[in-house]
Write a structure and sequence with these properties.
A two-stranded antiparallel ribbon has the order 1-2. It has one domain. The chain has 13 helices and two strands; from the N terminus they run H-H-H-H-H-E-E-H-H-H-H-H-H-H-H. A hairpin with a 5-residue loop joins strand 1 and strand 2. It is mainly alpha-helical and 327 residues long.
Amino acid sequence: MRRATPQTDNVRSQSELVPLGPDSLTWKYFGGWRGMLFGPWAGSMQNMHPGLGAAVEEHSQFFDERWERLYRSLYPIYGVVFDGPRAPETAAQVRGYHDTIKGIDKKGRRYHALDPDTFYWAHATFFYSLVVSIEWFDGPLSVADKHRLFDEHVRWYRLYGVSMRPVPGSWEDFLAYWDRMCREVLEDNKATRDVLDLSHLDRPPFLRWVPASVWTVLRPPMTRGFVWLTIGLYDPPVRELMGYTFSPREQRLHRLVGRSIGLGEKLIPRRYRYHPRARAGWDRASGRIPADAPVVHTPDRNLPPAHLLDSPMHYTGAHENVSGGTR
């Protein structure tokens, strides 16, 4: 058995950064459209962290353009996994969006988006959502696969070029870390409640054809369903923190919903289950498109409002100076 120690906190050279590839489990399971169902879970779990919640509350315009922000953010997030040799560059860009996000919260606590514990928590939620989603959609993972996914998440995180100090040393250590965060660190705050408040959610892009009057009728049951799915995904200490309950009957129904979605997804051709940035990674790896083909960027319809286009906090798609991706 390997020794479980925290990741070493040293500066890695570019030659030591090894992006994930098509042989990884992360490529197999990450980057799918089904992950959109985990959006409220991931967003709320991230915002429960005191530093992250304060940063979102004081710096983010996410709730002014919820769908556009979500859709465009997926491109660089998935790029860190699927951009191949360009993944370290994508990771550096993602890190750069967080450089200026800092301040003092309402309780007088200093925060910075690149604080090692804060930045790793965001990554931990992406990793753990991957594990939880696989088991919810597809059934139990073997312990060996969980160890493999854990090791891959460390390689993935190292690409950001930030401190590795908070990263647990093993899958078992990660579970202990996650439990401690849920029980002792996370808090119920405004940024979290805002994620879960879908009462004013606009029509998603794929339902723009639905008349506004019809959406007004459809929105309440749809958003209640989203919140219910999210509550079912929470760890029990988080449900307790947020004041939610979930009965054994609801848990059984929740598992059935997840497996049904997983089975239904298999009716879709595998290639089209993936987000365009992830699909392009697979296409480059398989030779379907040239290995040096430009990375895929968000359509302009998802860009930030005009007055925010020059903000260093925002990804602006092909308008950025990205090698292989400018126009």
